């Protein structure tokens, strides 16, 4: 039955997307919304049934896609613990986001295009996750990027939204080119593009080749998962509807890079240089995202930078070789980040689409369900002890510490510092948005249902640690489930050491909470004074994302514009256009000169004929000499 379940898992969202795109305008709105939601929940049901029927990793070939000489690309799906856990998570979280979207987008008239793209987004991500051949994975990879471009710029009538979509599309293309080069090189080296075969053939190649392949895959992951230095597109991606932001950040696009590296870790894990590069990228990005989130005023941009930071933690885990820990945090992060974004959507809808957190406050009493749900999400993000985020983040830090060496110990300390900053900005957000006096909100008819969607996500985020509890608490399900994977090694650590490191991580998180309380939890008046105060140079530096956008504008965009201006003014207009215009003017002048002989007088014509005849006779006489 597994082939049937996997096929339907892909076909349901594809059918929903195509139906909404082709016939959505002609169908009643309610029918389109119900059908779009039903196809995603049907896909989730197939994932659950596949999980129930799963016994061992297996490759399922559905058909031949392409065959030419030595290159054969079948449509093959691969189900193992990694892909299975991802499909269940994607189906559930995206299903909730679809239900939320029905009420959040109630006033938007372009519902058919929205739900078509949302369904196709789910299909593309599932294709990426289940693809056993790298070209099929690449098809899903590009599909995710294309759908994100269209959804980020969904309200394209506003030039800022259209620019944000183009920025995401162009920035991620850098990583896509690296991935394409890596795939071509892999086929040239191994003669196959099967993920399972390639993962088992790394020992045939020199370490330098594996290192270069690892760097190419890392660049691909940088683009799709918004890691330094290709992270500049993600904060601007908040231009899209809030449910789209939740889907991109929680269940689909930004996790694709982490999944790619985790999937190919048996291959690239043979190079310690490549693993170190992945770990350093993740550690620095986690710190970068956390520091930038400290200074943001826009509610969604705070969460965007937090996503950059948390994906950095996952990359750090992959760089330490801990695919189980990285996947654990990926799953728990999907729950609490979707919770935070959807909670932010409730706040924005209730505040008449206001997103400046310094203009909020007092929503704890006005939106109690949103407050408690958002508080759970913030606690998970901050890593408050015994939440799901605490256990998942600690498993990564523990893996980094156990990796050993000066580099990984330095990255562990950087991860602890990032955790402190994360706890601070998480509760800064809670205090600024929900604390204080009574806030006045606008209650729409769909707000109640939107808030109800938060409850299952809050429960999963809060108790997500049960997915992989430490050994001293009875062991974890994911560790046992992933044990058979080539990169699913269990961490060998004593109970005392693990408890000590968890206590340290818990203390760091509580210190960040306490600092946020003393800074922002003393009343609305002080917060408003801070909002009106002129920001310092450091705050401006962090608020502008370390000025990476300005750096790229200076280094890349301005030289490109200068070259384009040079070729346009000097070459195109000065040479090409001038030559064509000059030729046209010359021919026109010659025509006008000859036109002067067209006077209509017969005598002039006769004289002309006589002069022409004389010239011809003279020329012939000269030739006869």
What do these coordinates show?
The chain is mainly α and 625 residues long. Helix content is 74%, strand content 3%. Strands 1-2 form a two-stranded antiparallel ribbon. The chain starts with a helix and ends with a helix. The model has no long low-confidence stretch (mean pLDDT 86).
Structural class from helices and strands?
Answer: mainly alpha
Strands, total number: 2
Order of helices and strands: HHEEHHHHHHHHHHHHHHHHHHHHHHHH
Strand order of the largest sheet: 1-2
Radius of gyration of CA atoms, rounded to a whole number:
31 Å
| Percentage of residues in helical conformation | over 70%
Which sheet architecture does the biggest sheet show? 2 strands, antiparallel
N/C terminus separation: 101 Å
Overall pLDDT: 86
Number of separate helices: 26
What is the strand content?
under 5%
Shape: globular
- Low-confidence segments, given as residue ranges, are none
Question: Topology of this protein?
Answer:
Elements lengths: L1 H22 L5 H25 L4 E11 L2 E9 L1 H24 L6 H20 L3 H19 L6 H32 L4 H5 L7 H18 L8 H4 L5 H10 L1 H11 L1 H4 L3 H22 L5 H21 L3 H28 L12 H4 L1 H15 L5 H16 L1 H30 L12 H16 L14 H5 L13 H26 L3 H9 L4 H7 L4 H48 L6 H23 L1
Antiparallel strand pairs: 1-2
Helix pairs in contact: 1-2, 1-4, 2-3, 2-4, 3-4, 3-10, 3-15, 3-20, 4-5, 5-6, 6-8, 8-11, 8-13, 10-15, 11-14, 11-15, 13-14, 13-19, 14-15, 14-18, 14-19, 15-17, 15-18, 15-20, 17-19, 17-20, 18-19, 18-22, 19-22
Keywords: Membrane, Transmembrane, Transmembrane helix
Organism: Geomonas diazotrophica
Protein name: NADH-quinone oxidoreductase subunit L
